[in-house]
Amino acid sequence: MDAFKPAKVVKEALDKAVEKVADLVTPPVPGTPGSAPAPLDAPSEPQGPLPRKPDQASPQTRTATGAETGAAADVREQQGEYLTTSTGVRLYDTDHSLKAGARGPTLLQDHHLREKITHFDHERIPERVVHARGAGVHGVFVGYGNATNVCKAGFLAEGVSTPVFTRFSTVVGSRGSADTVRDTRGFSTKFYTSEGTFDLVANNIPVFFIQDGIKFPDIIHAAKPHPDREIPQAQSAHDTFWDFVSTHTEATHHVMWQMSDRAVPRSYRMMEGFGVHTFRLVNAEGQTSLVKFHWKPKLGVHSLLWEEAQLIAGVDPDFHRRDLFDAIESGAYPQWELGIQVFPDTPEQTFEGIDLLDSTKIVPEELAPVQPIGMLTLNRNTTNFFAETEQIAFHVGHLPPGIDVTDDPLLHARLFSYIDTQLSRLGGPNFNQIPINRPHAPVNDMLRDGFHQHAVHSGVAPYKPNTLDGGCPFMAGLQTGAYVEFPAPVAEGVKERRAPASFADHYSQPRMFYRSLTPVEKEHLVRAFTFELGKCYEQAVKERELRVLANVDAELCALVAAGLGLPAPEATEPAAEVAPSPAVSQIGQVWPPDGRLIGIVVDADDPASLDGLHTLRQTITAGGMVPLIIAARGGQLDEGLVAQRTFLTARSIEFDAVLLAAAPPPAPDAIPARDDKAGAPASAVDPRVVLMVQECYRHAKVIGVWGTGEAALVEAGCSAGDLGIVVGETPADVFTEVQTLLGAHRVWDRFPATIA
User: Fold this and answer.
1) Across 606-660, where does the E strand assignment appear?
2) Is the pLDDT of residue 7 over 60?
3) Which of 138, 146, 203, 253 is labelled catalytic?
4) Catalytic residue at 430?
5) Is the same domain home to 637 and 542?
6) Are 388 and 512 part of one and the same domain?
7) What is the pLDDT of residue 711?
């Protein structure tokens, strides 16, 4: 373990990897759709396509067989200033079909109409069965070099910079569902290594519902919308989900995580990732270790409150993907350290009594610390969502030399399933030739033909052995970089359908999870169980899940039962003695505020409320955050000051903290006929501002006040002495303390928990 002392960040390599984006000029407020301002009138002079925005990137320009082309980055983008057919024939009209006279029938000979409509009819491909809703971005991974004693994979060597593409996703919802639903999140990264592609297909929850992949259709069918009505969408608060998990108790540990705050992350940027399974690493000497992969966000782990998540789902269903894209555009590049927990590769494949092949179990970090081995930086948005994010194809079997699988039965089913699903989604076996999936290593696979074959194969002998092609391709050996499965011994026994005895413990780790939470996190967990079970219609489902919770923890069961108005049952199994794992909790540390959104409420008709805002905005921006000015009307407020939000368009859920530079009076549109948020009782302050302050306070967010802004506090029923409300003489004084408080994510002590 000595080789895993905290490694220094390979700063020079990382700086070099991201230096191309260091001099980009980004707009003060990210999210502008185009790369140049749009003119008021439609352009009349022909010009070619505008360049992509500075924050965007496309897949590298490689051939279908992995060779570098040296072509320009825009070689795959649209060319020329005139509209053409797909074969490059210029068109003079695309607004009118070819007809027999202005009022006559459309002619079958209209080849442009047929091409345009036919392509439109086939624009969509099947969405993913799971993880359909996602967002992906480009980045770079830099190895620290301290993993080489356990793994020979070249991308982990010191200073090696590897291009990556990372896709975040929800699991259950369709492509059109909301981002902030209560669900597990996918965290999948494709490493384009020089030794072949490595896909680390992870989740933000370290355990899974099932131990054997044969049960995967069951859990997904149970979690998906009911088949008769196709509702509810992207939710677990319904009868079929709870019917399954209350009878299939090996799901209990995952259910605990899913009912916790982990299932409603504040941002993809503030989300841990876990490889779930145990993998086998092989070093250059052929020695092996067992490991679990972890992604640790540099911004810390942080979640939404449940009311926030519900509001956001209606106000901005694209909240998480917008947050990710805007952070990258503004230069607040998300970062994670890749870490591993290392275990001896013993025949039993266990550690401290924990079965490493059981995907419903974790190894507490206190028993096996996570050792950082590299840094992931996401620094480029996609150029085209469909071509990149929608067509990216991950597979847990994409492994470079040095990384191998273990005998985890869930992992084995995934090794089959990931390849199989691409055949339906991406139209055939050549999905790895789509630009976003193309490897960055030479390919000579002897795989031929099929739908969407992009490679133009030479030679006449796509078989082995051959002499007609000079024997090419030849087999590689260990010394020439071959992937060789480690010859692990195979368990002896008869063919049978059953699980090992160690898989039978379904309650000790869920109990450990509950005992590891802080009081406020326990409150949220109780609330989530009560809400979800309260949405079920079948009384038997609720009572059965209470029996499960009784075996986890009597206190948890009693609190949920009280919320449901049901008696708490007695446990049917003795409660295990467990030690809490502090690493499970999200609360208690201090984190950087990079990429946070700060709302600043001003009075557009009071110049005094604008005093000091120029300096304040510069301070916020310099701190890696984004300031947004909120006023009664949009547009120019003062020289260099523009209101990016109005009381009509703003909502508290968009901001991590709100600063009150004024208590603006009701604006002309502060009437229910114009804005439903203005339906509060009449007051001296615009009711939308009052609502914003009330929501921020209720959601434990920091509030800063100076000038006349204190009047808005009074109208909202808050007090300058309340926790997390900073009152000062100047914007600079106030924001200094606000920024400090943001390090804890929220003002958790504002609402003391009732659970110990």
Assistant:
1) 626-631, 635-638, 641-643, 645-646, 657-660
2) no
3) 203
4) no
5) no
6) no
7) 95
